[in-house]
Design goal:
heterodimer; A: about 200 residues; mainly alpha; 9 helices; about 75% helix; B: alpha+beta; about 40% helix; about 15% strand
């Protein structure tokens, strides 16, 4: 394992297969999670992870080292996701499977109490709500909260100023909150409908 | 947990900004409690004390953020890394790093049993490949000797038609076919022109430019005005459509791409006027007609066939447009540019997309990127 990333990149640029393999090993999971959370579809996420890493390795000559390799990969993957979302809009492909446990409404009919949601339920709600908000909002939330990027990195990935990122993130948090509330009120309505 | 709706700075208490609120939401409890008077965290904390609904909202946002951060982070299946390295190796071998290729989608193939890798081949395979390559080069050189040396007495002219038995044995010409196993764009123009000795061979772009119906600058102008259609004559529309789908699925070049056309565009292109425009010099689908018997006797239905239409997006430069036309030409037997009198809705100049071609455009303000053009591409079967 090569700890020094610049050295790793130089070796990969020089055609060292082990270095290329190390880059893939090091970043594939983060890129996969990024694609999965943005697209919500494991098949698409696998495909775009592959596409991103191939593009990166093939285009490594163009990587100038000013941004971190991880940030650069996030940028390529995010752009690939945007492209996929745009084409999916046309093709109307199936969206995300519900997280483990099925639809929150269905589960709630037997499980929900008036107590605060437990952590598992909250995770499920947040995952479903994330898929219901605009892609622009979803992307910024995933980059910041799921991937844990700094504001500067998110700005580099999306190619917009930090101020814009903050404003977009604030609106994204509001949109997510509203989506969660819609889910929870849907839960409540379905319960009333069963009483 | 229901919170009141608010959507902008105007709904935040006076003196608070979105940035202040974000900082509070993202700060841990210790940092918030240690906020110094006058700091943004302190201002938010004070505002919350006097506005419980704001406090409820921000606390909910904080919990949402924690939930997002605790979502599971699954690893991709093992085949993903394997497929990446194989594809990288393949591209390196083919020296196609400057032009992405069309390949079967990994997700469809699985990469479990039939994937191709030089390194995965048995030890005898590499020397065998090297010997085969040397033999192929030698054979090719032997074939060219009569052409390059006029004194050798060859009667063969400078142009080899595709139906030449020798040539067709060597190079099967199936322009619309995509090699499903390993390669990218199907090869082969309709004819292969061998330049006479001493003549400077024109570049592919020059050949293409000479074949176009109009100067590429004019085509670019029309494309940006939404008044250009590209018609690609193909042997079989379904096969070309499949090949185009492959192009659409994977960006083949950083300066252009193909996408499925929206139904409005397909509908517009299905009009009789557009069908006529596409029917140039004997290419084109022509209308579908059928007869039937109604209460008033025999009637004939005539309708335009459903066109095979894609939407091309290309960077607005002559080079990018030529690159796109060259790529499309490989799918069929002929490419034509058709000018329109009126702009097609949604076509024409579009902003540079934020796509993975950022590999090339990592630098600079996106607003300064060259605009792109949206151009309809119609595949028509040659008659």
């Amino acid at each position: 394992m090569i700890d020094d990333e610049p050295q790793l990149i130089e070796r990969a640029k020089a055609g060292d297969g082990a270095a290329a393999s190390e880059i893939v090993e090091r970043y594939q999971r983060r890129i996969y999670v990024l694609c999965l959370r943005i697209l919500g579809n494991p098949d698409d996420a696998e495909e775009l992870t592959q596409e991103t890493l191939v593009k990166a390795l093939t285009g490594l000559e163009r990587y100038d080292g000013r941004a971190k390799l991880g940030t650069w990969l996030h940028r390529i993957a995010t752009n690939a996701c945007y492209t996929r979302i745009r084409s999916d809009r046309v093709r109307s492909k199936g969206r995300v499977p519900w997280p483990e446990g099925g639809e929150p409404e269905a589960r709630s009919r037997v499980q929900r109490s008036d107590e605060a949601l437990d952590a598992g339920q909250r995770q499920r709600h947040v995952a479903v709500a994330l898929d219901q908000i605009q892609p622009e909002h979803r992307v910024v939330l995933v980059l910041r909260d799921v991937q844990g990027l700094e504001y500067e990195q998110v700005a580099e990935v999306l190619g917009v100023p930090i101020g814009t990122i903050k404003s977009r993130l604030f609106r994204a948090r509001l949109a997510l909150r509203e989506a969660i509330e819609r889910l929870e009120s849907g839960v409540a309505r379905s319960e009333w409908g069963h009483q | 947990m229901t919170t009141r709706p608010f959507n902008s700075d105007h709904d935040l208490p006076q003196g608070l900004t979105e940035s202040d609120v974000l900082e509070w939401v993202e700060a841990d409890a210790r940092t918030r409690s240690a906020a110094t008077p006058g700091s943004s965290l302190h201002r938010v904390t004070r505002a919350i004390a006097s506005d419980t609904s704001l406090g409820t909202m921000l606390e909910a946002m904080r919990i949402d953020r924690a939930a997002l951060g605790s979502l599971e982070t699954p690893a991709p299946p093992d085949w993903v890394a394997q497929a990446v390295l194989e594809e990288h190796e393949r591209q390196a071998l083919l020296s196609l790093s400057d032009m992405a290729t069309i390949s079967p989608r990994a997700a469809d193939r699985g990469y479990d049993d039939d994937s191709f890798s030089i390194s995965a081949m048995p030890g005898w395979f590499r020397p065998a490949m090297a010997v085969a390559a040397v033999l192929a080069v030698a054979f090719g050189a032997w074939q060219l000797i009569p052409l390059v040396l006029p004194s050798s007495g060859s009667q063969r002219g400078p142009e080899l038609a595709t139906n030449d038995p020798v040539e067709s044995d060597l190079t099967p010409v199936t322009p619309e076919r995509i090699d499903q196993e390993h390669t990218a764009v199907a090869e082969a123009p309709e004819t292969v022109t061998i330049p006479a000795p001493g003549v400077i061979e024109p570049s592919a772009a020059e050949i293409l430019t000479a074949r176009l119906d109009m100067p590429v600058e004019r085509a670019l102008e029309l494309a940006l005005a939404g008044r250009l259609i590209v018609v690609v004559a193909v042997v079989e529309a379904d096969a070309a459509g499949d090949a185009a789908e492959d192009i659409a699925a994977q960006a083949v070049a950083p300066t252009w791409r193909l996408e499925d056309a929206e139904k409005e565009l397909v509908a517009a292109m299905a009009s009789p006027d557009h069908a006529r425009l596409a029917d140039l010099d004997g290419i084109g689908e022509g209308p579908i007609s059928a007869t039937g018997h109604g209460p008033l006797g025999q009637i004939e239905y005539v309708m335009a066939s459903a066109p095979t239409v894609f939407l091309a997006r290309a960077s607005a430069s002559p080079e990018a447009l030529l690159g796109m036309l060259d790529g499309l030409a490989r799918l069929g037997t002929e490419v034509r540019l058709v000018p329109l009198d009126e702009r097609l809705p949604g076509m024409g100049e579009i902003p540079a997309p934020a796509i993975e071609s950022s590999l090339l455009w990592w630098e600079g303000d996106p607003a300064a990127w060259q605009p792109w053009a949206a151009i309809p591409v119609r595949f028509v079967e040659s008659r």
